[in-house]
Model the fold of this input.
Amino acid sequence: MSIISKVAITGGTHGNELTGVHLLKHWRETPSEVTRKNFSTELHLTNPKANKANRRYLDQDLNRQFNIHDLNNSELTGYEHSRAKVINTLLGPKENPRVDFIIDLHTTTANMGMSLIFNTDDPLVVGMAFYVQDQMPGSTLFFDPVDRLEDTFLTSIARLNGFLIEVGAVPQGLLRADVYQATREATRHCLDYLELINQGISPVQPQVREGFRFIEKVKLPENEQGEITAMVHPNLQDQDYQPINPGDPLFMTLDGSTLIYEGDKVVYGAFINEAAYYDAHIGLSFMEKVQVNLKSDPVVG
Amino acid sequence: MSIISKVAITGGTHGNELTGVHLLKHWRETPSEVTRKNFSTELHLTNPKANKANRRYLDQDLNRQFNIHDLNNSELTGYEHSRAKVINTLLGPKENPRVDFIIDLHTTTANMGMSLIFNTDDPLVVGMAFYVQDQMPGSTLFFDPVDRLEDTFLTSIARLNGFLIEVGAVPQGLLRADVYQATREATRHCLDYLELINQGISPVQPQVREGFRFIEKVKLPENEQGEITAMVHPNLQDQDYQPINPGDPLFMTLDGSTLIYEGDKVVYGAFINEAAYYDAHIGLSFMEKVQVNLKSDPVVG
Done:
């Protein structure tokens, strides 16, 4: 009984995140590495034009264009609006998808290590996160549940949803071997997991683990001209997923003064100093710790 | 007796290296920080259009356009060709410069720490490098002597030449507070040094120190289609200025195999995995250790 028959691995959804782009090249040369007995694997470079330009995107972030309303809105005519519709036709369509599962490969300039990002509490997907974390114990669960049809991520157009592998720190526009190898390994575990599930074997059992959920993006301070007047504080730099307590340093102004976190509850940082968010003057994301619940056996249900 | 009367600090010569850009903004707000009694200090954002586009350059690398032949070649009509001519008019002209000294602020995605780059053995400039190194002991001398008129760097259009402050690792398109503060500190030492020289005080004496000189750029391996087939090896990543011995790992192919350094003499890496050189498929620079000689007292001569 195969419940998963078609898997897609996507890369270059952000054109200057080269790890996925080059893994796709490698797997096209060596398909056996991503082939499993009980499902087929497709490889898709999703934004080749942005990749060629070495930019995250040309007109708008491709990985925010996949909610059902935008996919069906013919007035959205930007380059990535159009790419999203094409990818939806190719892998979806979202309402009745051809592909069962999508693994989308991303990198970050933030020191987020191996981050496993998933937007559903479906046991198949949560089980994958737990399985990869078992194989790669330093990895972090980044969990932000949202209805699949409303979800803006590319992964949401697959029938059983999908999974983002997000690895850093690596600058945009280059490869780091450690990040490349970690992404390659995590993808292998994802495929192994799906193969086990197809064989009726659950490698994980119902349980609760710690994860992080997005609260809000935090802007860098600006002056009246809209220019940034501060940067991420050195104490916070590279401290992704560590607690930020009330009164902790958050930013350092251009003249070297410290601005503190003025909230009254502990939060956690992620995407700290992510280059992709700099044009919007976003310094980091605040996250909260959450319990991620694998509610039932991914096979038995 | 003031021998230096006009100093220029330049930033954003590479538009996506934001540290210099924001230091210039800070110093415009707080000019006292870069003001010294015995010379004037000018602040110049040299490639604002590339900075606005968050790109290193629009048409060609601005910091390769300042040799005397290119400056006088009216057939070079690209955007940065033109900017170079304008900057030469503003700060030079190279044959008879108005400005005495230029400090140009750069960053790198490579793990090069505080690198002091200078292209002349003139005691004034070598003395500055030694002085900054005395104040910031972890810094590295990056010395590549070339005739001032032939030199392609922006700094070469000043009468007494100039000095690049090159700090990393920091991704393109963002600020890291540690890199910002280190650059700010090094600039302060440069200005203090020039002020001492103007007062007839030599803070450094003739001596020889270790530095690194550029040998060649090393390309990443490519296939017949001109695509890269390997990346910087994990053992080499972040190991700028460390020895590379014959037989040491140099690259890791996309399938994970190791390619070794096949030369027969010890070299040293720099600009290892610099994002700016990725479009040209440059993996690193080979450097050699050299003796940097402060031939005479910078004041007495």
